[in-house]
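Lab notebook page, bench 4
Experiment: in silico fold of construct C2
Operator: M.H.
Input chain length: 145 residues
Purpose: comparison with the prior construct
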Amino acid sequence: MATIFSSICAFLLANKTAIATKVIASATYDGLKKVLDFSSLKNRIKRFFKKDKDAEKYIETICNSQSKNEAKPYRDIEDSYEELTGEKFDEELFNEIKNWIEENQGQLSNVSKMEFKNEGGFNIGIQNAGKNIFNIQGDYKPKKD
């Protein structure tokens, strides 16, 4: 399922960043902010919010929330704003987000190359076993019914 942010990127950039859009859809805000500089977006949209903190919360919301209108992501942008602020949506906010995405399409295209370092655990792709799975940092023993 796509996030609001990935849907709006796909919509605005068409197929220019198809792979990156899929990566964006599966990444969370915390992961994306490690490879995308959202501070310039926050600076552009903060005038639409009463507090700077709300602008960041809005960006986090559109990055983490599932898109309900992938064909018309504008509606998700509008709904998310109204749910967060309780105020009527200003179309200029959409234009600011659109302009930021277009100006940062190079950075968005590079999202597909992002790397994450695991600093607090271990990564396991897929493990299938009919019995116990033994790992360095803990074991999993399935319960028998």
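Observations: Residues 4-114 form one domain. The longest strand covers residues 133-135.
Next step: discuss at group meeting.
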